[in-house]
UniProtKB/TrEMBL annotation:
This is FAD/NAD(P)-binding domain-containing protein. Gene3D superfamilies: FAD/NAD(P)-binding domain. Residues 44-335 form the FAD/NAD(P)-binding domain. Signal peptide: none annotated. InterPro entries: FAD/NAD-bd_sf, FAD/NAD-binding_dom. One of its GO terms (molecular function) is oxidoreductase activity.
Amino acid sequence: MLYQDTSRNVDVAMQRLASLSEVCSIGSSEGSPSRHPLPQYAERVAVVGAGPAGLSASIQLVGLGYTVTLIEELPVLGGMMAVGIPDFRLAHLRLKECIETLHHPCLKIQCNTRLGRDLPFTALRHNHAAILLAIGLQRSQFLDVSGESVLRGVFPALTFLKEYHLNGRTRLQGDVIVIGGGIATIDVARVALHAGATSVRVCYPGLLADIVDVHAARQEGVVFLEQVLPVGLLGSEDVTVYGMHCVRVHSFGRDSFGRHCLARVPGSDFKLHTDIVIDAFGECADFSGCLDDASLNRMMLIAYPDTLDTNLQGVFAAGDVTGGYRSIQSALEQGQRAAISIHNYLRLHTMPSFL
């Protein structure tokens, strides 16, 4: 998931993660035992996803006395903090320093492991007393315009950012248009420029907020086309994108979800040339392969906001996968809350139901 934090919020969140990571440095070596020894419980807990929610939950659970298996699909810890937020908004060296402190005999880390593909969900449930799903929003949503799914040169923002951060040789050539909105869209546009794009334009259906990230992007050369909505992509005979069909829109209020209600301006159609389109329209959860048991696949996973437990016994959820405002800070807080809920579940689940 692409976080909607401003640069200031990212700094605050990193300070919090640094203070949390100190928990694992206490008692991680024989020469530095904890001044306040905690009980060591027999139950093992699995945390799936090593983004901010998964990291904070794992640290909290280790501090409470549990052995934790932290499972991450990417080759690095940090989730989208590591591969989604660029260096100019998050000091990756600082993130690396925080992660390097996560050495503790009760914390087992498995990278390059996807739940379902590499590790069956049923096996995970069998071997752990509780599971926390902190997988984030890893599947890109599309604007659903003509040509989006068939033309070459159209990339989801998540795919582009992962490739850029994990493969330093990723380069772009030609003109780029980014479609979407929010801080994450600005990140994608700036990274595209850093990756070698000749020009970068952002088609944004609303009006941009007057924030430092927008000013920084403009100073670097990003062009923002406000109140512009893409309605179709133009492709050549060899099925390669070469342009975009757009219309101008205006807002006439908000719906029940707080989203802008947009109306097209009559006769405002126009076309833009582009060599590459990056779709930063949004993301959703990807549970494909996770719930591998046939009976579970037919169920909808429901996370209860007060306790973060789900309709599957012993399974909890935290972070962006539960909905709500997408920020590193809120994900860190939810991870800690989920850890406390798991602790209460494991210590009290044999007690009478009225407690």
